[in-house]
Amino acid sequence: QSETRRKLLELFSQAKGDFISGQKISEILGCSRTAVWKHIEDLRKEGFELEAVRRLGYRITKAPDKITANEIQFGLQTEVLGRHIYYEEEVTSTQKIAHKLAYEGAPEGTLVVAELQTTGRGRLDRTWFSPKGTGIWMSLILRPAIPPQKAPQLTLLAAVAVAQGIQEVTGLFPDIKWPNDILINGKKAVGILTELQAESERIHSVIIGIGINVNQEIEQFPEEIQRIATSLSLEKGEKINRAELIKAILLKFETLYRQYLQHGFLPIKLLWEGYSVSIGKEIIAHTPNDSIKGKALGITDEGVLMLEAADGVIHYIHSADIEL
Ligand code: BT5
After folding, report:
1. Residue 19 to residues 23, 55, 309: CA-CA distances in angstroms?
2. In terms of Cα–Cα distance, which of 280, 313, 297 is closest to 305?
3. Predicted ipTM beyond 0.90
4. Which ranges of 125-193 does DSSP label H, i.e. alpha helix?
5. Nearest Cα to Cα of residue 158 among 189, 184, 193, 134
6. Does residue 152 have a cis bond before it (omega within 30 degrees)?
7. Distance (Å) from CA 181 to ligand 1 centroid
8. Which of 114, 91, 77 has the alpha carbon at shortest distance from 244?
């Protein structure tokens, strides 16, 4: 049964949106025309939209918005990122699973992705709301040969990759808020969390967690974040295919990551600055012990935020929450 279904889907994807006659389908699958009709009905039940036209046959007009390994790998153009995918419908946190897989030796580029996270998390153990079927909750395992203190640069790289991917797929204009938020029209649509497995001088792996609100309606956000959060579909006014977005982001990521490993952080920094909303503005940086108000001058070549306080002192901020 599932083998027939796989063949049928492969046929449709080879046809790239063209009609395939019922006759041809029944020949290739080796089943009767009635059985073909039944398979088509099954696909409809799974969320596929199909058009049936006499004498022409069937074609798929819309695939369901799924993000299993099949959907992501179908048409994926990367060489390394996303070549190994670990998908589960429900997880505690994709970060947690990625840590475990990385520890067990999963290769660079391994992607963990889920429809639902029961305990998705942000920085400092804050909660990341990850309702079912509406967003992209994923973690990417990287194994760069860089010193651990440079790892925060990868957060900025990830932000650029996600911003570029969103721009390409949706046409929206994302802003990056240092270090790890992506805003659309001033509201948070993406959060990024970078974690390390390292010894003093050597990185074993970097786990980059990316949470993207894609298709939520506003009521689907918990009340406490309704004013600060948004989804791509709310801003765009139409639903967005998550697998397409994941593929676009992985490809952008791979290109930037190659550049980074070859040429260092500078090319990434320039791109990052192009998306930044904070540079040149008066902001407040809330660090665990302090709140510093000042003008954001930019980021250093290491990715550290430079903040000029009213007394002219320049503060170098490694990690903080930024209030615009
Ligand atoms: C982040 O933390 O923004 C990083 C979020 C990373 C989530 C991904 S999803 C895949 C992977 N698996 C995980 O378990 N995590 C990663 P931070 O800057 O600390 O922001 C957290 C704050 O954002 C919360 O305290 C809320 O105010 C807000 N928030 C929570 N869920 C949100 C959502 N879905 N959309 C927008 N804002 C949200």
Report:
1. 12, 10, 65
2. 297
3. yes
4. 152-170
5. 193
6. no
7. 9
8. 77
Asked if 101 contacts 95 with a C-beta cutoff of 8 angstroms, the reply is no
User: Is the beta carbon of 180 within 6 A of some atom in ligand 1?
Assistant: yes
Cβ atoms of 28 and 7 within 8 Å: the answer is: yes
Ligand 1: does its nearest atom lie under 6 Å from the Cβ of 225?
A: yes
CA pair distance 159, 177, nearest whole angstrom = 9
pLDDT tens digits, 20-48: 999 999 999 999 999 999 999 988 987 88
Q: How far is CA 195 from the centre of its chain?
A: 16
Average pLDDT over residues 126-155: 96
CA angle 227, 230, 234 (to 5 degrees): 120
Angle at 148 between CA 142 and CA 153, to 5 degrees: 70
Query: N- to C-terminal Cα distance for the chain?
Result: 56
CA-wise closest residue to 303 among 278, 272, 274: 272
| Model pLDDT for residues 105-134, shown as the tens digit of each residue | 999 999 999 999 999 999 999 999 999 999
CA of 83 to the centre of ligand 1 (A): 26
Centre of ligand 1 to C-alpha 127, Å, is: 6
Measured CA distances, 240 to 64, 81, 275 (Å) = 11, 22, 22
Is residue 94 within 6 Å of ligand 1 at its C-beta?
yes
- Which ligand 1 atom lies nearest to the CA of residue 216? 34
C-alpha to C-alpha distance for 262 and 214, rounded to whole angstroms: 32
What is the layout of strands, in order, in the sheet containing 321-323? 314-317, 305-308, 290-299, 282-287, 321-323
**From atom 37 of ligand 1, which residue's Cα is the shortest distance away?**
229
Whether the CB-CB separation of 248 and 232 falls below 8 Å is answered with no
pLDDT digits (tens, 9 = 90+) for 186-233: 999 999 999 999 988 899 999 999 999 999 999 999 999 999 999 999
Would you state the structure tokens that stand for residue 287, as one six-digit string?
Answer: 């660090």
Determine the angle formed by the axes of helices 33-45 and 2-15, rounding to 10 degrees. 80
Q: What SS3 class is residue 112? A: strand
